[in-house]
Amino acid sequence: MENGSPIRRLVEVRLENEAAVLIDTAYTQGSDEFNFPGLQIDLNTRYFLIIREPGFTEVRHQLEINRGPFGVVEFGLVNLYLNTLPPEDEPSGSTDTVDLRQLTAEIPDEAHDAYQDALGHLDEGDSDAALSSLELAVRLAPQHYDALNTLAVEYLNGQRYGDAKQTFERAYDLNQNDPILLTNLGTLHFQEGELLEQLAQDSPELDRAGESYLEAVAYLQDAMRLDPASARIAFYLGSALYKTGAYDEAEETLFVAMDNDPDMGESRLALINVYVNQDRPEAALAQIELYLETFPDSPQREALERARNAIRAAIGR
Prior knowledge:
alpha+beta; 12 helices; 9% strand; Serine Threonine Protein Phosphatase 5, Tetratricopeptide repeat; disordered N terminus; two-stranded antiparallel sheet; four-stranded antiparallel beta sheet
């Protein structure tokens, strides 16, 4: 939530322990739910939910953890709110660039009202009513960028990938300089590639998956040019490059992600995959050791220890 209103963007939520060690990461489209499945929780440790978004004050919320009557660990429902920084506190070099067509677009009052109604419905958790209002807003004002972007996110949340893709592309036609939109488009094509890859039974399907990954790379490269300090964009781009087989570029980009956010463990995990696929066991082993040292309580620890032992055996160490 942004100042009490839903945020229609991809937001990273970090789960850290009291020593500021990253335990897990979840992503949510603004006002939607997020969760951390399969966690091993120590009831003697304090845990915090952390959100660090450019232009907003940092969120640090301590979780209240209880053990239910059947021994199940319970967190309860947590609502997190983001508050915008005052203008004088915002970092310089903001990457938000508004296309001139947005400034000159005339939005009828009816479309504006429908969009505001949609935000209210989203705040209340009524996705169906929000969709109806958003679809009305973009029918009344085809150049309503915010309504298009929000509608596309809602389609994506509902796994209506074709509608999401079409609507994101309509928003892209209005503004090609929004790194959030470009990241959403890149993520959409990446997910499309993964789905096609999972369903692939023959070469043409695999070719289509490869094309989706290439499209993801193109959008994410544009997003990174606009927001080079974003660890999240660099991570997504590195992951997409890995899927295309561009291992050297993936390695370089994932190091950028780690430089931008040393606590983003997903980047190091992705780098391990790059090295494994390049048949660089020594490099993979070094990254596994660094990850385990940095995140000793990671839920990935057992799998990584098995991988570490297998690599050591293979190279005679």
